[in-house]
Design a protein that fits this description.
It is a single chain. The chain is an alpha/beta fold and 343 residues long. It has a single domain, classed as Rossmann fold, CATH 3.40.50. The protein is built from ten helices and 14 strands. Strand 7 (145-150), helix 4 (152-163) and strand 8 (168-174) form a beta-alpha-beta unit. Helix 3 (122-140) crosses helix 4 (152-163). It starts with a strand and ends with a helix.
Length: 343
């Protein structure tokens, strides 16, 4: 197959699929046994009048801090990525990796953070993704599905795809990390005494409160990109995803730090998987104001994708690491996702 290689910089509004508000969309939740800690939470949104095949099934995989409710199914009209996909004929699934949201957490997360080493690295996530993909393919009687990862989720979904090429039809990497060396995260996570090593003082998990959620996002936002109702609901859903959040003052969610080991490796030129083993079409997306995952990170995975039939890199103007939840970019992100999977 002839390889088409090009980069598309999306600096103007692209054609948006019209949003059809439908009362037919159903939401279901499942708990899958397995994984490392015993329970994996999955959400599904779909229109029961649609017929599903390998082309219109998608699994969303979250990043290092927030669960699927916050990132992919925010209950604010027009800001649910899953709802949009379901309204456009897709069977949309999302998973909470163990350690997050409604999935099982390591028992160490009930102890103080410094009582354990970083928890839930990509090996845990890849095992969870494998269980969920097997569940979906069996449920829908297909051999492969489409997968989308955001942030740390691009590491976990990329690794899964490289290790299970026959299971993924198309892969979407939103805010990617792979093997770039210009990202300052590498230095921040390094051992102060030896920058080539991960910092051994980083504990098993961290606590994230409302102020931390807001400040991280607002560092990248300019002008009126972020509606207040979206920020407020994002914070609410994120904190409520941890049943212990209200036991602390201020309320805070627990987020495993194993992701930081993967991020450290990915930002110091030592990715945790070999992207040349990915053989399906790949879409890379990021906001041009994303300071968490840089253009260097996107180009690193772009250059490593040497075995794909085609690939695309889209940059959204006036969008941050959370471009999928911002007023100027969210519909562009959703429509480009649907277009790539439908073409």
């Amino acid at each position: 197959m002839k390889k088409y290689r090009y980069i598309l910089f999306l600096l103007v509004m692209s054609i948006i699929f019209p949003v059809t508000l439908s009362a037919k969309i159903l939401t279901k939740e499942y708990y899958i046994k397995g994984g490392k800690y015993g329970k994996i939470a999955v959400r599904e949104k779909y229109d029961p009048s649609c017929k599903f095949n390998e082309g219109n099934i998608i699994l969303f995989v979250h990043g290092a801090t927030y669960p699927y409710e916050s990132g992919f199914d925010l209950p604010v009209p027009g800001y649910s990525w899953m709802e949009y996909m379901a309204e456009h004929g897709f069977d949309a699934f999302a998973v909470d990796i163990e350690g997050y949201g409604k999935s099982a957490r390591p028992p160490e997360m009930d102890l103080p953070p410094n009582k354990s080493k970083p928890l839930c690295q990509s090996d845990v996530a890849v095992l969870d993704i494998k269980r969920v993909v097997d569940f979906i393919t069996k449920k829908r009687k297909v051999k492969k599905i489409n997968i989308l990862g955001w942030s740390w989720g691009t590491i976990t979904t990329g690794r899964y795809t490289a290790e299970n090429p026959g299971k993924v039809r198309k892969l979407i990497l939103f805010g990617p990390l792979y093997g770039g060396i210009k990202n300052p995260l590498g230095k921040r996570l390094a051992n102060p005494k030896n920058p080539k090593e991960f910092n051994p003082r980083i504990p098993g998990y961290r606590l994230v409160d409302a102020k931390g959620i807001e400040s991280r996002w607002m560092k990248e936002v300019k002008g009126d990109w972020l509606p207040k109702e979206v920020l407020d609901e994002f914070i609410k859903q994120s904190l409520e995803s941890d049943p212990t959040s209200k036991s602390r003052n201020p309320p805070s969610l627990r987020a495993p730090n194993g992701c930081y080991v993967d991020v450290f490796l990915s930002t110091t030129g030592s990715p945790v998987y070999d992207a040349s083993k990915i053989t399906c079409p790949v879409l890379i997306m990021r906001g041009d104001a994303d300071h968490t995952t840089l253009d260097d990170d996107a180009r690193s995975i772009w250059n490593a994708l040497t075995s794909v039939p085609y690939k695309r890199y889209i940059v959204f103007a006036d969008g941050t690491h959370h471009a999928s939840l911002e007023s100027k970019t969210h519909l562009q992100v959703y429509s480009e996702t649907a277009a790539f999977l439908k073409e």
